[in-house]
What we know:
The protein has helices at about 1-30, 35-45, 55-65, 80-90, 125, 145-150, 175-180, 205-210, 220-225, 250-255, and strands at about 100-105, 155-160, 160-165, 185-190, 230-235, 235-240. The protein is α+β, with helices and mostly antiparallel strands. The chain folds into 3 domains: about 35-90, Electron transport complex subunit B, putative Fe-S cluster (3-methyladenine DNA Glycosylase II, Chain A, domain 3); about 100-190, 2-Layer Sandwich (Alpha-Beta Plaits); about 190-260, Alpha-Beta Plaits, CATH 3.30.70.20. The strands form 3 sheets. Strands 1-4 form a two-stranded antiparallel ribbon.
Amino acid sequence: MNDILSAILVVGIVGLAFGVLLAVAAVIFKVEVDERIEKIEEVLPGANCGACGFAGCSAYAAAVVEDGAPVNACGVGGSNVAQQIGGIMGMAVAAGKVMVARVHCQGTCENAKDKYEYYGVETCEAAIKLAGGQKACNTGCLGFGSCVSACKFDAISVVDGVAVVDEEKCTACGACVKACPKAIIELLPKDNKTFVKCASHKTGKEVNAVCKAGCIACKICEKNCEFEAISVIDNLAVVDYDKCTACGVCVEKCPKKVIG
């Protein structure tokens, strides 16, 4: 009996000693965390989407405080979160434009031709490896929804073979932009509805041969814009959003209805 009590006593003393050592070590090696990091984490949306360029919200918060990362890098939180982070960091932040993802393609099953029937793995990454995908247009949306899988906000879907963005749900996190192997999704100003729904740089004749709804580089939009906000560059209409007033003239005049 005495042996058992002695063993218990020894174990208790050893445990107490280790506890004291751990407590002392915790005090000695304690890492002071800047309270601003926790405050920034609290205002971040917690999506951990990585669109800011960091591993997650915690990593971004630490980078803002410790490395001077931009306070407006959170696309999900937008201008409101940027303003709050700026307040925590003691700096003024100008209100930025609200952005939204838009797809430069309207090559639906009816509008666009296919080169072949595809029966492989139904992802855009897999499809593009086979001669650039099944679409006859080299910049046409493949329609297998890699962008849909990448979006954490259910803001994008494939309708009739083309990715379509729900702008009310879109947070401009940029995940779909990164996921698209055709690079036809872009973040654009939400308050300006004018954008070109095509990404082809082929000639008008070549575009007409593969798609009913592609830009044919006719320059009618360019000639009719009094603000010089749209130009045809390398066979494709391009909008200058610093000049565009969203007057709608180019939308009305476009014979192919490529501008929305």
